[in-house]
From TrEMBL:
Phylogenetic lineage: Bacteria, Bacillati, Bacillota, Bacilli, Lactobacillales
Source organism per UniProt: Levilactobacillus zymae
Catalytic activity, as annotated: dihydrourocanate + A = urocanate + AH2
A Pfam family reported for this protein in Swiss-Prot or TrEMBL: FAD_binding_2
Name assigned to this protein: Urocanate reductase
Similarity annotation: Belongs to the FAD-dependent oxidoreductase 2 family. FRD/SDH subfamily.
Principal EC category: oxidoreductase
Alphabetical list of InterPro entries matching this protein: FAD-dep_OxRdtase_2_FAD-bd (IPR003953), FAD-oxidoreductase_2 (IPR050315), FAD/NAD-bd_sf (IPR036188), Flavoprotein-like_sf (IPR029039), FMN-bd (IPR007329), FMN_Rdtase-like_dom (IPR005025), Succ_DH/fumarate_Rdtase_cat_sf (IPR027477)
Needed cofactors: FAD; FMN
Superkingdom as given in the UniProt entry: Bacteria
Enzyme Commission no: 1.3.99.33
Length: 766
C-alpha cells in the first residue's frame, strides 16, 4: 500500500458508546468514511451518517457542521477522525466554502406540519392525498422524533390489514376503548379515546397502502390487551415506518425541511394563526399556511419542565424532546392537562447516569421463559408475567427503584439475541459483564456469585429460588399466582442477573384539543382557528398509563385525523378567499445593484409575517414602445396581473437626475397603456439614496406620474419615507441597521395598511 492510499481506523465516543470507523484516503483526499461498529440508535444513525460523510468529502475537511439533533454523536466522529487523519500525516486541502449569507425566505403552503415524527408524517400524507400542498419542518437533521426509539408495534383494530391477520370479528373499537380505560384506571379522556379507537383501523389501512407497509402479527402479544390485536412491520423497527412513509410523502410531492427549528407562529392582522417562522441553516423561513398541524414531540428531555413523578426514573427518549412548542405557543394561552404524566416502562438498563436503554422485548421473552424479578433483599416482588404496570409499580416501590431479572443460560441466549436486535451491540453487552464495578449490572455465574456481584442477599436469594423451583414442580405459584404457562424451572448451575429500572421516553400529558376535529383549544375552551394537534404533544387519549402499542396507535390515528381536518380547513379558506393583505413591491430600477432593492427586502423581512409581501423586478421588462402595445409582452402581462391582484403596492424609487429612473417610467407606461392595474390601487412610495435627501425629488415626480390619467393610483398621503446615506444603513442580510429609521418605516407601513383597509371599506359602501 502506498503512502498516498491509506485506510485510517479510529474510535469515537458516541452518545451510546464506542463508534469504530475507517477513513479511506487517497492522494491526501478523503474518499470515504466507513462505520465498522456502533451502538447508536440505528434509526437516527442511519439517517445522519451519510449526510455527515458527504459534508466531509465535499469540504475535504472535518471542520464541518455536526448534524442537528445528533450533535454529540456526529461531533465526536468529526473530532476523532480529524485527529486520526492528522496523526497519519495526511495533509488535507479544504475546499474553499462560499460564505452563504443569511437570508429570509418567504414560503407558502396549504398545510404546514411542525414535527417529523410518526404523527406529523401521517398527517402530511393524509393532507397530500386530499389535494393539499404540504410542507413539513423538523428541527433535527433526521426524521422520527421519539418514534424512532420505539418498535413499530401498533394496534390494527378495525383495519382490513388486521382482519387478514387475525380474522374477522375478533376485536372491535369498543373493546379496545374498554381496555384503554381499564388499564389507565379510567384516567383517559373517553371522547378522545373514542376518536383514537375508531380511526386507527382506517389510518392503518391508509398508511399501509400509501407507503407500502406490510404489517404482520407482532411477535409479542401483551396481556394488557384482552385479545390479540398487536401488529408490527417485518423488521419490528419504527425506522422502517419512518423511512418508507417519508419516502412516500416526498414521492407524492410533499416537502420536508430538516434542521428547521420553529421559533414563533405567524399570525395575521386579525391575530389568527397563519403559519410559522423557522430558523434553518443560513435562512429564516417565514412559512405562510392555511392550516398548521402541531406534531412536535413532548418535553421529557427538559428537566425544568419535569414533575415529581419523573424523579429517580431514567430517561431513554431523544434529548431533543425539550418542549419547544410550549415556548412558541406562549402567547396563545393554550389549554394543557397532566403535563407531569409520563409513560413509564419497567424494562430498562441504565447505560449512563439518568439515561436508559429499553429492554422490553428481551425482558418479555425472559419472563415468558420463567425468569423472575428479585430485589436487593433477594425476594421476588411481582407476578412477572402480569401487566407491565404491575412490574413497573413494584419496581418503583423498591427503595432504590431497581430490581434484577434472574434467568438461566437457556433463557439468556434468547434474551441476548433480542437485545442485539433492539439497539444493543455484542461489544457493548460484553463490556457490561466485564466492568463489574460500573452500571448497568450484568453478571453471570453461580447463584452466590451473581448475588454478590449485584449486592443481593445471597441466602435469601437461594431460598427464593428454591421456593420458585418447588412452585414450578407443583404447577402453582404460591407467592403471586403467576400463570402456570410461564412457570419454568431453572436449568443448570449458571445464572444470569440483569438489572431492570423504570424508564420513560414519552410524556402523556400535553395540549387539549377539540375531541372531534383536534383543533387546539385555549383556556376558555375556544378552538384556535387553523391550528390542529397530533401525537405525543396532545394529552388524554391513553390516560395516565398507555398500554403497549398505544403510543404508536395514538400517533398514527391522531395524525390521520389532524391531516384530514387541516385539509378541510385549507379548502374552506381557499373557497372563502385568503384574508391576508397582499402587498406587491416594485424595485424601481433595472440596475443589478440597488440600495432600494435592499430597502424592499428589508421591508419584506420586517412585514412578511403579517402580510404577503412579494418583491417584484422591472429589469426584465423591455423599454416601452407604443408600437408593441397591441402585442403586450408576456413579462408585462405577468407583472400587471400581480399588481391588479394586490391589495396595495410599494414602490422603491431611486433618484436619477432629480427624477425617477427611465426604467421605472417605462414600466409605469406599460402598466397604464393596454392594462390599467394601478387604477384606484393603494400605493406607498419609499426610497433611499447615498446622499442626504433620500430621493425627495424622485418621490415628488413619482406622485405626479401615479396621479396621471391612465394610472389613477391612490397614493398614501404624507408618510414620506426617505432614507439618506444608504451605504451604512444595511447589514449583509439586507436588514436595516438604524433603529430610528426602522421605527419610522414601521409607523409609515402601519398607516399604509390602515389606508388600504379604509379604502376597501369606502369601496364597499360606495
Amino acid at each position: 500500500m502506498s503512502d498516498e492510499n491509506k485506510q485510517i481506523t479510529g474510535q469515537a465516543m458516541g452518545h451510546n458508546g464506542i463508534i469504530s470507523y475507517e477513513v479511506d484516503v487517497d492522494d491526501n483526499q478523503v474518499k470515504d468514511l466507513k462505520i465498522l461498529q456502533h451502538s447508536e440508535t440505528s434509526g437516527i444513525f442511519n439517517q445522519v451518517i451519510d449526510k455527515l460523510k458527504q459534508r466531509i468529502i465535499d469540504g475535504q475537511s472535518f471542520d464541518v457542521d455536526a448534524i442537528s439533533g445528533a450533535t454529540v454523536m456526529t461531533q465526536a466522529l468529526l473530532d476523532s477522525a480529524k485527529d486520526a487523519v492528522a496523526k497519519a500525516d495526511v495533509k488535507l486541502t479544504p475546499v474553499p466554502q462560499t460564505n452563504t449569507a443569511h437570508e429570509t425566505k418567504n414560503l407558502k403552503t396549504d398545510v404546514l406540519i411542525i414535527g417529523g415524527g410518526e404523527a406529523g408524517l401521517v398527517a402530511g400524507c393524509r393532507a397530500l392525498t386530499l389535494g393539499q400542498k404540504v410542507t413539513l419542518v423538523e428541527k433535527n437533521g433526521y426524521l422520527g422524533g421519539a418514534t424512532i426509539l420505539n418498535g413499530s408495534n401498533v394496534t390494527g383494530t378495525g383495519s382490513h390489514v388486521s382482519a387478514k391477520i387475525f380474522g374477522q370479528g375478533t376485536d372491535s373499537p369498543d373493546q379496545l376503548a374498554q381496555d384503554v380505560a381499564r388499564e389507565s384506571k379510567h384516567s383517559n379522556d373517553p371522547e378522545l379515546t373514542d376518536l383514537m379507537v375508531h380511526n386507527i383501523g382506517p389510518a392503518i389501512d391508509f398508511i399501509s397502502d400509501f407507503a407500502g407497509l406490510d404489517y404482520q402479527k407482532a411477535q409479542t402479544q401483551t396481556v394488557e390487551h384482552s385479545v390479540e390485536r398487536q401488529i408490527e412491520l417485518p423488521t419490528a423497527s419504527s425506522y422502517e415506518f419512518i423511512q418508507k412513509v417519508s419516502q412516500a410523502f416526498t414521492d407524492h410531492g410533499g416537502e420536508i425541511i430538516l434542521g428547521a427549528r420553529v421559533e414563533e407562529l405567524i399570525r395575521n392582522q386579525k391575530g389568527v394563526v397563519n403559519g410559522a417562522v423557522a430558523e434553518a441553516q443560513n435562512a429564516t423561513l417565514n412559512i405562510k399556511a392555511r392550516s398548521v398541524v402541531l406534531a412536535a414531540g413532548g418535553h421529557g428531555a427538559n428537566t425544568k419542565m419535569r414533575g415529581a413523578e419523573s424523579k429517580g426514573i431514567d430517561y431513554y427518549g431523544p434529548m431533543t424532546s425539550t418542549g419547544d412548542a410550549y415556548s412558541f405557543n406562549g402567547d396563545l394561552d393554550l389549554k394543557t392537562r397532566n403535563l407531569d404524566w409520563y409513560k413509564v416502562y419497567p424494562h430498562g438498563v441504565e447505560v449512563e447516569p439518568g439515561i436508559a436503554k429499553l429492554t422490553t422485548y428481551a425482558s418479555k421473552k425472559a419472563t415468558d421463559m420463567g425468569a423472575i424479578y428479585v430485589n436487593t433483599k433477594g425476594n421476588r416482588i411481582v407476578d412477572e408475567s402480569s401487566a407491565y404496570t404491575n412490574a413497573r409499580d413494584a419496581i418503583l416501590a423498591q427503595p432504590d427503584k431497581v430490581t434484577f431479572m434472574l434467568m438461566d443460560e437457556r433463557t439468556w441466549k434468547q434474551v441476548y439475541d433480542l437485545l442485539i436486535l433492539h439497539d444493543f451491540t455484542a461489544k457493548e453487552i460484553k463490556k457490561f459483564f466485564d466492568e463489574k464495578d460500573k452500571l448497568p449490572i450484568f453478571t453471570k455465574g453461580s447463584l452466590a456469585d451473581v448475588a454478590q456481584a449485584a449486592g443481593v442477599d445471597p441466602d435469601q436469594l437461594a431460598k427464593t429460588v428454591a421456593t420458585y423451583q418447588a412452585d414450578v414442580q407443583a404447577g402453582k405459584d404460591s407467592q403471586f399466582g403467576r400463570d402456570s404457562e410461564y412457570l419454568h424451572a431453572f436449568e443448570g448451575d449458571t445464572y444470569y442477573l440483569v438489572e431492570q429500572r423504570g424508564r420513560f421516553a414519552t410524556t402523556l400529558g400535553g395540549y387539549v384539543t377539540d375531541r372531534k376535529t383536534l383543533e387546539l383549544l385555549d383556556t376558555h375552551d375556544q378552538p384556535v382557528a387553523n391550528y390542529y394537534g397530533a401525537g405525543e404533544i396532545i394529552g388524554g387519549a391513553n390516560g395516565h398509563d398507555s398500554m403497549p402499542s398505544m403510543m404508536n396507535t395514538w400517533g398514527i390515528s391522531s395524525g390521520y385525523v389532524a391531516g384530514a381536518q387541516a385539509s378541510q380547513n385549507a379548502d374552506q379558506r381557499k373557497a372563502a378567499g385568503d384574508d391576508d393583505t397582499n402587498i406587491v413591491a416594485l424595485v424601481g430600477t433595472n440596475a443589478s445593484k440597488s440600495y432600494n432593492r435592499k430597502l424592499l427586502h428589508s421591508m419584506q423581512h420586517l412585514f412578511g409575517k403579517e402580510v404577503d409581501f412579494e418583491v417584484c423586478e422591472i429589469k426584465d421588462l423591455p423599454m416601452f414602445n407604443e408600437d408593441l402595445a397591441e402585442n403586450e409582452p408576456a413579462a408585462v402581462k405577468a407583472l400587471a396581473a400581480k399588481v391588479a391582484a394586490a391589495d396595495g403596492v410599494v414602490i422603491g424609487v431611486p433618484e436619477y437626475d432629480h427624477a425617477v429612473p427611465a426604467s421605472l417610467k417605462s414600466a409605469l407606461e406599460w402598466l397604464s397603456s393596454v392594462e390599467h392595474p394601478f387604477t384606484d390601487k393603494a400605493v406607498m412610495i419609499v426610497g433611499t439614496s447615498l446622499g442626504i435627501q433620500g430621493t425627495v425629488r424622485a418621490q415628488m415626480n413619482l406622485r405626479q406620474i401615479l396621479d396621471a390619467p391612465g394610472v389613477n393610483a391612490k397614493v398614501l398621503p404624507g408618510n414620506e419615507f426617505m432614507l439618506p446615506q444608504a451605504s451604512n444603513k444595511f447589514d449583509d442580510h439586507d436588514h436595516l441597521t438604524d433603529a430610528n429609521s426602522e421605527n419610522f418605516l414601521k409607523s409609515c407601513f402601519n398607516k399604509f395598511l390602515a389606508f388600504i383597509k379604509q379604502d376597501d371599506a369606502d369601496k364597499v359602501t360606495a
